[in-house]
Design brief:
This protein is mainly β and 275 residues long. It contains 2 helices and 21 strands. It is globular. The two termini are 33 Å apart. This is Oxidoreductase.
């Protein structure tokens, strides 16, 4: 059964997918697809350039050697390689209301052993006249020695993707952050906000975690607060790792709608920090 989250006007905004039909080589996992209140699609699933990109999902290319990203694995001093090392994420429990979804997700490694338990909450709220999506995930290691890496930590400069990753369908995008205009300023920055504007819609993202942003706007458009920037992240068993991403949706983006959306997104991240 498909779960759809709606805004206060009853418009469908987020559609949740189990990921059960995803190819094993693409790291099967639950994911979400998103449309704006006007019905503009602002996520992309299984695009021809990266078949393992699945709308919005929690994904990373290296958890103690298991690839939860899908596709190739970057091997130090060798380059990208297709390996038999893909994991999968399985929904253990879930519940839904009109604008909120909660689930428990088990991350299973390449040997099908449990490695991480994730508690996930996705909400759709109306804040200051803007529809805003809030995604919060808490990862907990289920055994000793769990560490999260990226292609950058494994030797590929700039490729520190991994976290709550959003693949956008825009052919190109303008990018802005507190660090300035352009991906060259946003990529790797710890700006409290990120603006990604396509031709027909805009995305205003924020995060209370202040993780460095991975941002790409050439070849494809995608972004995430990055889990493993310049070094591996080690998880102790039972110690929670909290991730969050807030995205305000903008139809017909201009200076006024973007400014209003930015205020709405920051309002939610500020309340998250306070709580």
């Amino acid at each position: 059964m498909t779960t759809i989250l709606r805004n206060g006007a009853g418009q469908p905004i987020v559609t949740l997918h189990s990921g059960d039909d995803v190819d094993p080589g693409h790291a099967p996992r639950p994911y979400a697809t998103v449309t704006t209140p006007a019905g503009v699609e602002v996520t992309q699933t299984r695009p021809s350039d990266h078949l393992h990109h699945l709308g919005v999902s929690v994904t990373t290319p290296d958890v103690s050697g298991t690839n939860f990203w899908g596709g190739s694995t970057y091997v130090r001093d060798v380059g990208p390689q297709i390996l038999d090392n893909h994991g999968r994420q399985v929904i253990e429990a879930e519940s839904a209301e009109v604008n909120r979804y909660n689930s428990t997700i088990l991350w299973r490694d390449r040997d099908d052993e449990p490695v991480i338990s994730e508690e996930r909450e996705i909400r759709v709220d109306d804040v200051g006249g803007t529809t805003v999506i809030s995604w919060r995930s808490t990862l907990t290691a289920l055994r000793d020695g769990v560490s999260i890496g990226s292609s950058q930590t494994n030797g590929r400069p700039g490729a520190f993707y991994g976290g709550i990753f959003w693949r956008a369908p825009f052919g190109s995008a303008d990018v802005f952050s507190e660090a300035g205009a352009g991906t060259e300023n946003a990529h790797g920055s710890t700006s409290p906000w990120l603006v990604v504007v396509g031709a027909d819609a805009g995305l205003v993202a924020a995060s209370s975690s202040r993780l460095p942003w991975f941002v790409r706007a050439e070849g494809y458009v995608g972004f995430c607060p990055a889990l493993a920037h310049d070094e591996r992240r080690h998880l102790e068993p039972g110690e929670p790792l909290a991730l969050d991403l807030v995205v305000a949706l903008v139809d017909a983006p201009d200076d006024n709608t973007i400014e209003r959306a930015l205020a709405s997104a920051l309002t939610l991240t500020t309340s998250e920090v306070a709580s």
